[in-house]
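User: I'm curious whether this sequence folds into something compact or stays loose and floppy. Could you predict its structure so I can see for myself?
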Amino acid sequence: MFRISNKIKIENSADALWDLISSPGHLNQFHPFCKENKVLESKNAAILKDQLIYLNGLTYYRTFVEWKPKIGYRLKIGSKNAKQSDVKWQLVDNGTSTYVKITINPYTSSKIPKLLYPIFHCAVIRPKLKSYLNSVLKGLEYYSSHKKPVPRNQFGTHSWFT
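Assistant: Here's the prediction. I'll summarize afterward.
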């Protein structure tokens, strides 16, 4: 019910995009709000756990729960010992270009009363996460076409992460 998705068409092959989004520290290349992304655990070229430090110092840990080469992956993300959101990255190749889709199922905060949560989600969480996903996907497109890391806050700042 509270799932948020965004996608972008990138003029590149799914193979090339998979090589990028599955490489160690990949968010350092294209995430406009990433200060540092480092792998904490991997096995057989698959990332199992990594750390994402945002520009404002907020630190999230990502645990990869599904890894499908050249198709996508699913992960859990959140602060250490806190509730986590579910995130799915998908690649859909149509020959000359590839659609990249990110879907987030955000955790439900216990700080917001259950009856008010749908309103808060629609008014605050959904627009903020849509904007966030748009910036991350634009960063991926930028890196794909320019072959250089995306400048920080390239597509505007975000109050949660900068």
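Summary: The mean pLDDT is 95. The longest strand covers residues 34-43.
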